[in-house]
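Entry type: protein chain
Record version: 2
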Amino acid sequence: MIRDESLNNRFIELHDGHDRIIQDGPKEYLLCDDCEQKIGRYEKYFVEVVHYNKHGTAKKHDGRHLLIENLDYKKMKLFFLSLLWRMSITSRPEFKVVSIGDAEETIREMILKEEPGASTEYSVSAIAPLFDDGIEEGWFLGPFVSKGVSETIVRIVIGGILYSISTTRQDTSLPRKSLLKESGSWVMPLRDFSSILFLQEYIERHFRR
């Protein structure tokens, strides 16, 4: 889906109860060259600011939260919108659980027009799971979907951080405090992996036999 240059283009895949390292990610050409290049720039920006503190960003943590400041909201939000859209339209079986229906066209237009929308539109939140008090930056997992009465949440672990993307344009159930915000700040709660029950349950259901 995306590459982490620190892993030499490797991805970590959970499979049959153990981790497996694969040398490259799944490929499917969904976009024109110009669009691929544009989205590629969003991906590059995402990796560089979240994992390398580039582009003038600053990271702070108080033991309970990770705070990233000085983000380019537009680039970050468009990265997640493009990720959600691509997961929905791809024919690859590992993403078949993601289907956002009519939102596909709306999000496609937002990407083409470079309009990220407000933080409360197709909101994105994050939690940083901790293993022995550290983040496993080589860990990739998902996507997996939580369906509610009025909202579907698509979750995916990228570089050890659990991201949740709402498929509704308003009234998200995601915690407002942990949303990616227009101000360029992002507060990510730090949580021991053992306390994130839905993530544990997903792994138990799909990978432990």
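Comment: The chain has one domain: 5-207.
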